[in-house]
Amino acid sequence: MKRKQPLIDEILDHPSDALSLLHLEDLTIFRCNKNFENYFSVSEKDAKGKTVYLLSGAEIPSKKREEIISRLRSVGIYKDCTVADLHQFLFHPVTIEGIHYALLRICNHQKDKVIEQYKRLIEKNVAGVFQGYLGGNIITCNLAFARMLGFESTEEAQKFNATKFYPTKTDRESFLKTLRERPVLLNFEIKLRKITG
Predict the structure, then answer these.
(1) Mean pLDDT of 54-82
(2) pTM
(3) Where are the alpha helices (DSSP H) in 95-168?
(4) FRET partner for 179 with CA separation of 20 to 30 A, picked from 21, 47, 87, 149?
């Protein structure tokens, strides 16, 4: 019979989020997951009893600590973006086996900024860029790609299967063969046709 995972471990077991369980009375770290350890380059043992603010390079003022605890008890959530440009702390109250904790989720602003810059680069690019599945469904594309194929918007282009844009079935198969041989294609041109023919 499979042993059930303890609830705290189940809560902290997340594939990508940096999570920590804090003592609600003083916001010190009780438990954390591997992502949290990796994010701050600290072991759970070394993080215990410290605040996440201290791990970020600054101690939390007692007034702010009181504000966070008060908001968690009354509103049920607290978001703090004041610690440098790198972190956004999201606090949520949780009760596990009758004990009150604060669950802390850390969002990385730098990662969000990089993603936003990448999106802008693709969206504003004069070259047609698209991402799709092997079956032909378009996941995303930029406006240049949509307009090259005769669409007014990216949403309109995404409704069509990319197999319809190749002059012949052989052209599509040749492109996929090349893609399988070389997963990264730089300065690679393909012939496509407009939706109007």
Answers:
(1) 83
(2) 0.52
(3) 109-124, 143-148, 154-158
(4) 149
